[in-house]
């Protein structure tokens, strides 16, 4: 492996692939009632095998395809399962704090148990590994892509770059790594919500600043390989200078991102030796670009410009050497810089001598030199199967084909929630309207006063029987006596419990005192008070809780008695009290006028109309409940899902999720709007009838007298 190029340290996982299969198996059993988990054992085995091959890489090119295949399967899972499946995916940090770039990494420790709660955590393992775990498939995909970028960088670094084909392969691998890192940057919003969930620790490898820095490092090294190819192919010095200038610009950009500390981008955790390496590379290629441009100036007889550029190159390579000598930086970097410095110094000595003795060309200031504009030969390159893995997923074969897609499952759940909310709203409106009608009729003493008016032969026999039952049972006085007895017994129980607790406390205090007095003498095997009286204290606590609960029940009964005391008193008072309480309850033979008769007739019709309104409202709610129970939106959603898959050649647009079915859900809920409208009309009709009842009741002298 080349020691003057950087390879991204790979991530390793501590989560066994069998745990992923087990988590999916449990999720199917818990959330898919129309499918049995055993029917998907083959799919689970395929997924487990694909993950095993993708996360255990040995640095060979075949690993790229394994990662792409597992990534395609993970993306396919998104259409069937939610992002969180109760499994924490644990991955190492490639750039933990105080990581040494050139230190060797041992094998990861054994994985945690599946019973570990699926929560995010940060842990340190033997061997210097730092693990970050997050319970989302999105994090598993992101960590996998990061590992793929690391693999591509390793493949590039093993190239010798001594021939054109090797340089091309290195350029392609570094560009592929940069493309993956750029793609990861587009996933930052999704990952941000995962990392923001407390108490989760963010994966610093996936911060925006770190990804931008690594992307530019990979691009710089790809451009460096293109520069090396140009050198091998003996291209013109001016072209090589422009290529080197672009290398310098990319390394400078990587250094800028490596120093980022903004809250929006997150801190970059690249180790100091990486930053020293990047700085040395930057000034090395700044010097190389000026040197190559000076050679072109010499060929064009621009001797002063040649000297100015050589002097600038000398200053740049001096900075590169200072950084290359930092601790833990590859010695190959310093050797390359020293070699270039020797060439620059030699050329500068020769150019200075020739210009002083022969050309006498004025040396321009650095600001007067023509700017050296770089030419890019490397751009981020994202593999088609990473950009859109649906084609590869279809090629690998269907996975969990018989499961209802998660977006369909979610859309159906949303629709059911909306129906339940609509029914609750109708039920609450119905209850409120009925309570309002009941309250209004009660305030008008209806329909009881109307019945008494229409039947002036005395009180109803059933009412008189109830009154007799109340009086024979002891009436209000009996209830008050029972309440007083309950209060007396409760007070007595409370006092007894207080005495018990006081005795226990006194006994403990006496025992503690004796033990202090005779601590140096033999006291036998007498148990401490806390031990001997433990059962008594436990029973005392149980009695206290029982008394507290009984007091709550007594308070409820007392409140009910206070609320109905007046009515019970009327029943206890017998026929005379009832006659006084209910208007026209006493026999009367006074004839009603025609106006009064008409008023009673209007009142009776209004009451009957109100009953019709209440019955119609109850029937309306029953109809809405029956329609909601029979309403099945699944066929429409499944059909829309099939159309979506056909439009996308077999893969639905996962980014939309359940939102793609919103038109179907909205259309389905429109048919319930009529129930809301009819409920509002019912409320208006009820108000009209209540107003008519109120006017008719107040218009009759006997009925209005009962309200005064």
From TrEMBL:
SMART domains, alphabetized: BRO1
Superkingdom of the organism of origin: Eukaryota
Keywords linked to the UniProt accession: Coiled coil
Keyword Coiled coil: yes
GO CC annotation, single: endosome
Region annotation (Disordered) ranges: 508-533
Coiled coil: 412-443, 669-696
Family matches, as InterPro entries: ALIX_V_dom, BRO1_dom, BRO1_sf
Domain BRO1: 4-443
Entry similarity comment: Belongs to the palA/RIM20 family.
Name of the protein described by the UniProt record: BRO1-domain-containing protein
Source species taxonomy: Eukaryota, Fungi, Dikarya, Basidiomycota, Ustilaginomycotina
């Amino acid at each position: 492996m080349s020691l003057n190029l950087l390879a991204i340290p790979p991530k390793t996982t501590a989560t066994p692939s069998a745990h992923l299969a087990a988590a999916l198996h449990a999720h199917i059993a818990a959330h898919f009632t129309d499918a049995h988990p055993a029917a998907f054992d083959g799919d689970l085995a395929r997924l487990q095998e694909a993950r095993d091959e993708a996360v255990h890489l040995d640095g060979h090119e075949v690993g790229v395809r394994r990662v792409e295949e597992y990534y395609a399967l993970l993306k396919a899972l998104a259409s069937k399962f939610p992002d969180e499946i109760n499994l924490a995916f644990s991955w190492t940090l490639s750039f933990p704090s105080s990581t040494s770039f050139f230190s060797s990494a041992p094998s990861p420790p054994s994985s945690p148990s599946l019973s570990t709660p699926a929560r995010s955590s940060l842990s340190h393992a033997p061997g210097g590994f730092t693990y970050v775990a997050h319970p989302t498939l999105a994090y598993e995909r992101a960590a996998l892509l990061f590992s793929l970028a690391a693999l591509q960088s390793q493949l590039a670094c093993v190239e010798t770059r001594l021939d054109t084909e090797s340089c091309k392969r290195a350029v392609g691998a570094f560009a592929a790594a940069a493309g993956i890192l750029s793609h990861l940057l587009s996933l930052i919003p999704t990952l941000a919500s995962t990392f923001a969930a407390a108490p989760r620790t963010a994966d610093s490898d996936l911060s925006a600043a770190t990804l931008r820095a690594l992307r530019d490092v990979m691009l710089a090294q790809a451009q460096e390989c293109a520069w090396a190819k140009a050198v091998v192919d003996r291209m013109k010095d001016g072209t090589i200078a422009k290529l080197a200038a672009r290398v310098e610009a990319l390394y400078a950009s990587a250094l800028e991102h490596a120093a980022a500390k903004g809250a929006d981008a997150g801190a970059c955790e690249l180790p100091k030796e990486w930053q020293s390496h990047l700085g040395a590379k930057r000034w090395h290629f700044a010097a190389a670009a000026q040197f190559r441009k000076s050679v072109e100036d010499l060929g064009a007889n621009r001797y002063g410009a040649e000297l100015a550029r050589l002097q600038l190159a000398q200053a740049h390579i001096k900075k590169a050497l200072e950084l290359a000598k930092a601790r833990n930086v590859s010695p190959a970097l310093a050797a390359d810089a020293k070699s270039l410095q020797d060439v620059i110094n030699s050329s500068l000595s020769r150019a200075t001598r020739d210009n002083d003795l022969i050309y006498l060309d004025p040396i321009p200031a650095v600001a007067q030199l023509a700017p050296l504009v770089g030419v890019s030969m490397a751009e981020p390159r994202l593999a088609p199967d990473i950009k859109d893995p649906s084609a590869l997923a279809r090629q690998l074969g269907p996975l969990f084909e018989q499961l209802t897609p998660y977006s369909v499952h979610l859309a159906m759940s949303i629709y059911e929630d909306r129906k339940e909310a609509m029914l609750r709203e109708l039920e609450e409106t119905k209850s409120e309207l009925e309570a309002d009608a009941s309250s209004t009729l009660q305030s008008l003493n209806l329909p009881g006063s109307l019945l008494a008016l229409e039947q002036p032969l005395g009180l109803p026999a059933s009412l008189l029987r109830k009154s007799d039952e109340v009086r024979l049972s002891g009436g209000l006085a009996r209830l008050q006596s029972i309440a007083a007895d309950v209060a007396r017994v409760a007070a007595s129980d409370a006092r007894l419990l207080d005495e018990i607790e006081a005795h226990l406390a006194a006994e403990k205090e006496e025992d503690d005192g004796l033990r202090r007095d005779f601590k140096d003498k033999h006291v036998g095997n007498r148990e401490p008070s806390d031990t001997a009286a433990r059962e008594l204290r436990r029973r005392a606590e149980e009695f206290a809780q029982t008394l507290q609960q009984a007091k709550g029940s007594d308070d409820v009964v007392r409140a009910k008695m206070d609320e109905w005391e007046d009515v019970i008193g009327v029943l206890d008072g017998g026929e005379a009290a009832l006659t006084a309480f209910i208007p026209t309850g006493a026999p009367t033979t006074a004839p009603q006028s025609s106006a009064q008769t008409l008023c009673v007739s209007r009142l009776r019709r209004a009451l009957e109309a109100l009953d019709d309104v209440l019955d119609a409202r109850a029937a309306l709610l029953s109809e809405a409940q029956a329609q909601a129970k029979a309403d099945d939106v699944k066929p429409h959603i499944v059909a829309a899902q099939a159309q979506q898959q056909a439009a996308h050649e077999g893969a639905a647009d996962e980014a939309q999720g359940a939102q793609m079915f919103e038109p179907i859900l909205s259309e389905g809920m429109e048919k319930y709007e009529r129930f809301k409208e009819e409920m509002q009309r019912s409320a208006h009709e009820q108000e009209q009838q209540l107003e008519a009842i109120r006017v008719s009741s107040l218009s009759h002298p006997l009925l209005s007298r009962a309200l005064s």
